[in-house]
Specification:
The complex is a heterodimer of chains A (about 450) and B (about 120).
Chain A: H1 2-32, E1 41-42, E2 46-50, H2 54-66, E3 67-68, E4 71-75, E5 80-82, H3 87-90, E6 101-103, H4 104-107, E7 112-115, E8 119-123, E9 128-131, E10 136-138, E11 141-144, E12 149-150, E13 168-169, H5 175-191, E14 193-198, H6 209-223, E15 230-236, H7 245-258, E16 261-264, E17 267-272, E18 277-282, E19 285-290, E20 293-295, E21 300-301, H8 304-308, E22 338-340, H9 353-372, E23 384-391, E24 394-400, H10 421-439
Parallel strand pairs in A: 1-3, 2-4, 2-11, 4-7, 11-22, 13-20, 14-15, 14-20, 15-16
Antiparallel strand pairs in A: 5-6, 8-9, 9-10, 12-21, 17-18, 18-19, 23-24
Helix pairs in contact in A: 2-9
Chain B: H1 6-17, H2 19-43, H3 48-72, H4 83-111
Classes of the chains: A alpha/beta (about 450), B mainly alpha (about 120).
């Protein structure tokens, strides 16, 4: 009896301690994520946010709480919001396509205006955004968060309607294409053969996704008992498997363990879908590779209106057009009233939802400070997180910054370079809840 | 992934099990706890015999809890990869064991009304 009471009491103590820690944690986060939440700043500023994806939505939700009287307008032609971190799960048959889809309007706060139009042009000199239906929107402050464009036309012989047939996958293209990617991959898992997993030469969103897809399909082959019938090759233009050297080494070892071959320094330029031949550009000229399954990730660039606006870097990423911003403040280097956040920002790292979560409070602080006439204090250090799935049920929770330092959120508890079940739980289960909280401006 | 606030934890569990299942389980756990407290207060005694039998059911609760979480998260025991995984697994098993122990004790004790012993 005594023992039981003690157990109950111990349990109670643990629970209480946990709640206390949770409360302390939330306080720490409140302190971390930004300036002291004072009275909303009075303003009649016209704020235009181009893009209502992860970054635009999260920022709008935060700004309405910080500003009183501001006219906040979002412009986005897509009515659907996509939870893009879920696409790798859809493409491995772990989630249905609708897992990643919600309505943009469901996430937006009252008091903002959503214009469901594409941007036709923007003039940073006159401070006006033009939409495709001819509306002119003058702004005092502008946030560029339109995401990026997948340049599928850059792969000769490839078009999106091919995805799902003849062994062609392309999970970045959206929920439907991710589901069709799983259709094509399933056939490969059943029949075996040669699988090519590619990556483009440009910057891409979620640099871990090409690796995750490779690992997951390899694991699916193992589980189907058909691994011996398949050859898996990861082919990429870069010299290493990941931008962070210590992670690249770890992935190299895992690829070795799993029998995944690599062909580095080659860029996919064309496919012949009927002959199942992929053409790569290499230092020694074009080379053809036969495949039974190919995963295509096209080059990625800033939207055309950004590249036409003169806001892109002039001397960096000239073929891609990312916005010329300071990497710590995300403020445009030539126009003080413009910021870029998310995929379109021209910073060395950070085309992930986790980066967005860290970038948005910085832009919020910048803009509210500019309006309130005080000095902004928040800085973005390049934080990016990549729960790198290595098999169904395991992942490595990799977090790093601009300097390629590992920045684990749970040091000593969750080892970043270890394949762990808890990291898988974070990716498969916890991430979407955290993401949703971020969209609402609460994380 | 730093925001382990109480609200985020609730949101995570809703996401993990779907809201109706999660809140259903919360209500069930609360009901069992209330019933457990009820029989303790009502009887002003702890039934050692019932507790002994309840303990025999605890391993079943532990295994059931682990199995349930594994199924819900597309995982299997082979995925346990490091010390923290073992800790999480044991915590889940412990919760299942305690929950099952309380449930069995309550059922037995409610049935024993009228001729309370020990």
């Amino acid at each position: 009896m005594m023992g039981h009471w003690m157990m109950a009491s111990r349990f109670e103590t643990t629970r209480r301690a946990f709640l206390a820690r949770a409360a302390a944690g939330s306080l720490a986060v409140a302190l971390h994520t930004g300036p002291v939440r004072a009275q909303p700043v009075q303003t009649s500023a016209r704020i235009v946010i181009i893009g209502a994806g992860a970054a635009g939505t999260a920022l709008a939700n935060r700004l309405v709480r910080r500003l009183d009287g501001a006219q906040i307008t979002l412009i986005d032609p897509r009515g659907q919001h996509l939870y893009q971190p879920g696409l790798t799960l859809v493409a491995a048959g772990l989630r249905p396509a609708d897992y990643v889809v919600s309505q943009t309007s469901d996430w937006l706060p009252d008091g903002v205006t959503l214009i469901p139009q594409a941007v036709a042009g923007l003039d940073p000199e006159t401070r006006v955004v033009e939409t495709e239906d001819g509306q002119s929107l003058p702004y005092d402050y502008l946030v560029l968060a339109p995401g990026l464009v997948l340049d599928h036309d850059a792969i000769d012989g490839f078009s999106l309607d091919m995805v799902g047939q003849n062994g062609i996958g392309a999970l970045y293209a959206g929920p439907d294409h991710a589901a069709r990617t799983w259709t094509a991959a399933s056939q490969f898992i059943e029949e075996g053969g040669r699988g090519l997993f590619t990556r483009p030469a440009t910057e891409i969103k979620c640099a871990g996704a090409p690796l995750k897809h490779t690992f997951l399909i390899e694991d699916r082959l193992q589980r189907a008992g058909n691994r011996a019938a398949a050859e898996i090759v990861y082919a990429a233009p870069q010299a290493s498997l990941f931008g962070v050297p210590i992670v690249a080494e770890r992935v190299r070892m895992l690829f070795g363990d799993r029998g995944i071959g690599t062909q580095m320094g080659r860029t996919l330029t064309a496919i012949d879908a009927s002959a199942k031949i992929a053409t790569f550009e290499t230092d020694d000229g074009p080379e053809d590779e036969q495949y039974d399954y190919i995963h295509i990730i096209p080059p990625q660039r800033a939207p055309e209106f950004i590249r036409q606006s003169g806001l892109s870097w002039e001397d960096r990423w000239t073929d891609q057009g990312w916005v010329d911003v300071d990497q710590y403040t995300l403020r445009h280097n030539r126009y003080d009233e413009i910021w870029a956040v998310g995929d379109v920002a021209g910073v060395p790292k950070g085309k992930t939802a986790a980066s967005v979560k860290w970038q948005v409070p910085v832009v919020e602080d910048q803009m509210v400070s500019a309006i309130g006439g005080r000095e902004a204090t928040e800085r973005y250090n390049g934080y990016t997180s990549c729960p790198l799935i290595t098999r169904i049920g395991r992942a490595m929770l990799i977090e790093f910054d601009y300097d390629n330092n590992l920045t684990p959120s749970f040091p000593g508890l969750i080892a970043p370079l270890e394949e762990l079940w808890i990291s898988w739980l974070m990716k498969e289960v916890a991430l979407k809840a955290t993401y949703n909280a971020m969209l609402r401006g609460r994380a | 992934m730093k925001d382990l606030t109480f609200g985020t934890m609730i949101a995570v569990f809703e996401e993990m099990f779907a809201p109706w299942l999660f809140w259903g389980m919360v209500v069930l756990a609360l009901l069992i706890t209330v019933a457990w407290l009820y029989v303790l207060v009502r009887d002003r005694a702890f039934g050692m015999r019932q507790f002994l039998i309840a303990q025999l059911f605890m391993p079943i609760g532990a295994i059931a809890a682990v199995w349930f979480v594994m199924v819900m998260t597309d995982s299997r025991l082979a995925d346990i990869g490091g010390p923290v995984d073992v800790i999480v697994l044991l915590a889940i098993a412990a919760l299942g064991a305690v929950g099952m122990g309380m449930l069995v004790y309550v059922i037995e004790r409610l049935g024993f009304r009228g001729h309370q012993s020990s």
